[in-house]
């Protein structure tokens, strides 16, 4: 039920109304976000802006980590991002995986692939438990 509640939390976030995306929790420490890129997401040179890469990678890693924490909302404390190649349009997938930590700080990584399965970006983040109970968030519905 925690996993479905995380999916509902993702869907309820106001920022996600701006994007054609969805979250699927795949298991303990694993999450996938699918996203469709079009010209609304382009920088001046006609490819997806780096903010799209960051959002997708951070969200996938964050939710992968938060699958292991059922009482508190996590906060991103740092995120390292590597751009592998540009993408112009189509469906992309961000796969997040928990790496280590379970108490106060968790580490998770994510990679981003295009429709052909080619990697377009990757990142690693650290996430810490906040003082915000998940149960207090209106979108979190177990």
TrEMBL record:
The protein's name: Thioesterase domain-containing protein
Species per Swiss-Prot/TrEMBL record: Caenibius tardaugens NBRC 16725
Residues covered by the Thioesterase domain: 46-119
InterPro entries cross-referenced by the UniProt entry: HotDog_dom_sf, PAAI_dom, Thioestr_dom
GO MF term list: acyl-CoA hydrolase activity
Alphabetical list of Gene3D superfamilies matching this protein: Hotdog Thioesterase
Domain of life: Bacteria
Lineage: Bacteria, Pseudomonadati, Pseudomonadota, Alphaproteobacteria, Sphingomonadales
Keywords: Hydrolase
